[in-house]
Amino acid sequence: MYTDLLQYVFGGLTSGAIYALIALGFCVVSNTMGIVNFIQVDFVTLGGMFMFSALFSLGLPTIPALGLAVAMVALAAMVVERVGLRPARSDNHLVLIFLTVGLSIIMRGVIKLVWGKNRMALPPLTPDVPVQILGASVLPQALWILGLTIVAIAVLTWFFHRTSLGLSMRAVASNPTAAAVVGIPAGRVRLTSYAIAGALGGLAGVLVTPITTLNYDVGVLLGLKGFAAAILGGFGSFPGAILGGLGLGLLESLSAGYLSSAYKDVVAFVVLLLVLFVRPKGLLGK
Amino acid sequence: MLRLEGVGKNFGGLPALKDVSFGAPAGRLTALIGPNGAGKSTLINCITGVLAPSCGSILFQGEEIAGLPAHKVTRRGIHRTFQNLRLFPRLSVLDNVLTGLTCEGGESMLMAMLRLPYLRHRERQLKLRALEAMDAFGLADKAAWPAGVLAYGDKKRVELARAIVGRPKLLLLDEPVAGLNAEETAAVGEQLRNLRRAGHTILLVEHDMDLVMNIADLVVVLDSGQCIATGTAGEVRRNPIVLEAYLGRMEATA
Amino acid sequence: MTGRQNLLYFLTLHRTGLAVTLMSAALLAFPFVEDNPYTLGLTNLIAINAIVVLGLNLFIGYTGQISLGHAAFFGLGAYGSAIATVTFELAPWPAMFLVAALVALIALAVGIPVLRLSGHYLAMATLGLNYVVHTVLLQWDEVTGGPSGFAGIPSLTVPGTVIDDAVGLHYLLWGFAMACLLLCLNLVRSGVGRGMAALAGDETAAAALGVDTRATKIKVFVLSAVLASLAGSLFAHCYAYVSPDTFGIFASTDFVIMVVVGGMGSIWGSVFGAAFLTLMPEWVEFFDTYKDFVHGGILVLVLMFLPQGLITGLTDTIRVRLALRRRDHAAA
């Protein structure tokens, strides 16, 4: 009974950490550009795919492969922003959001063409010997996920509070007009926010693939749950994204454990609708 | 007609308006003046329902309208123009003026979809009214043009026609001559005088002192969010506080 | 006025009515010219898609909001009719309108809370709704038939005949589509429609003109959901079989692409967009492999060069050119 609960909690935290990473990616772009970035869902898929290629086509060891995969997704995200969004020169949110939808469809085509439509499996970062923690057996991959998520959050915090580019980005988020007046380069801020969103999504994809296996549809689903997490926490708020991600992961795993697993994937969207209904600014929204 | 009592508005603790009280009597042209940052725009937004005042009451025809949403204020009979034009550039001039009649309601979405004969008749009448209003502002020959291609002065006139066509009880004009040359300003002044003569109640927010002094029945002076003087143009012109706060500063910068 | 001017004046004044009459005449005659069931099947699919796109375009083009979940309403209509007529043995016509009313309630439940927020939360809420609906259609197999779909849906009947051949369906579906087209044209050309156009152009100005912006958004959203539901019911009765994959989130994005190709807020453009996207696989050989590139590419290119959408963008450009020329002409 108690062990079951603990098992569900660990499972929930693990997927929650993944959702938190994706939610953070949504928030970064939303804060600097004011839009919902639909390509975020493709960054997740792309992360897993690059990891697959780095491990099996290039034959790299695990850790360098992880770094390469994340960097590649960040690079791809920057290309998308530079080639796909910036030339539109539009400030109309409707147009920009539709553009991200269009770019997401193209990206889906690229992924299917390069990596095929089958589900990809990845080996875990370290061999699969369950570890016993407080009576629950936990896979090392879950510990990796939790650990690397904490590292990513720490790096982000450092970036946003200690580097001048990060401070500029926070300025843009809190007051775009004023930021433009004092001469913060809008182009670079947008490009960087895409790179960060790509890296976060990519990392989520790399980490989750050994657990769930990955193809395009799975990536989309994870991406959408990440968005639901961002809404749950309060769209645009970084602590909210983390809290929302973990909360959503726990809800999902507990409802799958105690209610029904057939509708596990629906929980996120029911939560999304309920939050919009009851408290649209989310748990930590401004 | 319109009566403000102790209206205040705070933005995050900073007061933009403090205890503003004045009235705009029926059939008169009341002008609201004040230096930049005096709170004129905030006040207008409070009256028209874009913002809700933090305290005080705004009575229109004896009824409280403070805090009502914008569309309800409009439906009570307060129509406005905007300082920075807000036309619909893709719609024709005629359609732009016709949007000024939306407030009269009278048709539901379902009725509109079925295009009942009664609506066709009504539509014809609305078009006649719109053409009449456009005629009054010399716009009749441009009815079919997209509003976006008009010259600036014409756009201002379209906005006026749009505000007038719905037969407002109170017409609220936000800097109607900003950006116009002397000749055009004089023309607008003449039109305002005509409207006033036709019995319209007008609240004019304006920077142009000459225009205000020439046509206003009553002048309200706002400074730093407070109402510092009310009276006829002559009284206000002689009021030392006003001279200090507003005219003096104008001369100093001129 | 000369006779030519008179004629021109008459044509401009009645252009909408004439266009509708012409198109109806062409559609009436079409089966006499072309009776290949395959071709008719395609044009019938255009009619169904056009009904969905008409509603969606009213919503996107006139309220400036995004719905990425109209395939959910389409699917609810289709499965609703299937379940009502097969499981509950209701008559198809009343069932169709009963289902549409239920879908309207669902749209209301989603629209009321989400549309009071500024920002584009509706995009994600509708996407989430689409995902929930799709999952339920897949998982709840004792009611929906699960992944293998729902078969045996009866054909629609009009007194005396059962409509189950391509020609009969042509008249049924296009009759419906033209009726919806006419209703939408009436709407946008009415006073209510002008209020909607104002809302699309500038929300603050629209409110200052007395348009209840929130109520208008919700009403148009519900209207678009009802049209999608009716189209779904027709789809179910037309093919006698429905399966969950027709109503996934990618179907929703396809509807959005049809809207963008047609142009935001353009009623005629909606029909064009539906036809263009439905027929494209027929023209483009390599379409199957590169479907995503073609769809995404169209969306991105149209938005980049004509943000108002293809047809609206083109007609706007022409209108402005003409007006500018007339203005300069008048000035000279």
What labels describe this entry?
heterotrimer; A: 286 residues; mainly alpha; ABC transporter involved in vitamin B12 uptake, BtuC; two-stranded antiparallel ribbon; 11 helices; C: 332 residues; two-stranded antiparallel sheet; 3% strand; globular
Write a structural description.
- The complex is a heterotrimer of chains A (286), B (254) and C (332).
- With 286 residues, chain A is mainly α.
- Helices cover 76% and strands 2% of the residues of chain A.
- Chain A has eleven helices and two strands.
- Chain A has helices at residues 2-33, 40-56, 62-85, 93-115, 140-162, 164-174, 176-181, 186-212, 216-233, 238-258, 264-278; strands at 131-133, 136-138.
- Chain A has a two-stranded antiparallel ribbon.
- In chain A, strand 1 (131-133) and strand 2 form a beta hairpin.
- In chain A, helix 2 (40-56) crosses helix 8 (186-212) and helix 5 packs antiparallel against helix 8 (186-212).
- The longest helix of chain A is centred in the first third of the chain and has 32 residues, at 2-33.
- Chain A is globular and about 60 Å long.
- With 254 residues, chain B is an alpha/beta fold.
- Chain B folds into two domains: 1-77 and 168-185 and 200-254, Rossmann fold (3-Layer(aba) Sandwich); 87-167, no CATH class.
- The mean pLDDT of chain B is 86.
- By secondary structure, chain C is mostly helical.
- Chain C has one domain: ABC transporter involved in vitamin B12 uptake, BtuC.
- Chain C is 78% helix and 3% strand.
- Chain C has helices at 3-13, 15-33, 37-63, 70-87, 92-114, 121-139, 141-144, 166-188, 191-201, 203-208, 213-239, 249-262, 267-283, 287-305, 310-331; strands at 150-151, 156-158, 161-163, 241-242.
- Chain C has a two-stranded antiparallel sheet with strand order 1-4.
- Chain C starts with a helix and ends with a helix.
- The mean pLDDT of chain C is 89.
- Chains in contact: A-C, B-C.
- The interface between A and C is large, with 44 and 43 residues.
